[in-house]
Backbone:
């Protein structure tokens, strides 16, 4: 999660919402990314989406079975869908997202019947740090 947090810090410095993500396979970080919606001027450039794209390219495979995803904020609906479709084994997230979280906060994706994959979920990793960087970012925006 520390590597994902460093990505969130990069986003903060770039005036992007500070969310970072890394994907790990066999104990090695194979992809890392942070939010770039503002710089790319496109709503789909979330940290998780970019990180999944990089991991697929690195492995030359869309199927990321055997990989874990670490992200500083609970994924939204779009990112949760991409995680499920890429077959990532486990999601580790920092803090919950009461507005847009789709793992446990709003949509509890494990309650959706008939999905072809349900990754394990573990939340609250570096929760305070992940929450604080978001609070600091939005405080600066006001």
Residues:
């Amino acid at each position: 999660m520390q590597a994902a947090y460093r990505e969130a810090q990069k986003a903060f410095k770039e005036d992007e919402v500070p969310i970072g993500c890394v994907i790990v396979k066999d104990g090695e970080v194979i992809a890392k990314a942070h939010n770039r919606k503002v710089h790319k001027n496109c709503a789909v450039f979330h940290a998780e989406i970019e990180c999944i794209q990089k991991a697929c390219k690195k492995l030359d495979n869309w199927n990321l079975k055997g990989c874990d995803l670490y992200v500083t904020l609970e994924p939204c609906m779009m990112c949760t869908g991409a995680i499920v479709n890429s077959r990532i084994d486990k999601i580790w997230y920092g803090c919950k997202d009461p507005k847009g979280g789709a793992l446990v906060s709003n949509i509890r994706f494990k309650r959706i019947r008939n999905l072809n994959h349900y990754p394990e979920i573990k939340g609250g990793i570096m929760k305070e740090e992940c929450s604080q960087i978001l609070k600091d970012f939005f405080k600066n925006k006001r």
Remarks:
- Residues 102 and 108 are 6 Å apart (CA to CA).
- The radius of gyration is 14 Å.
- The helical segments are 2-13, 37-40, 47-59, 77-85, 127-141.
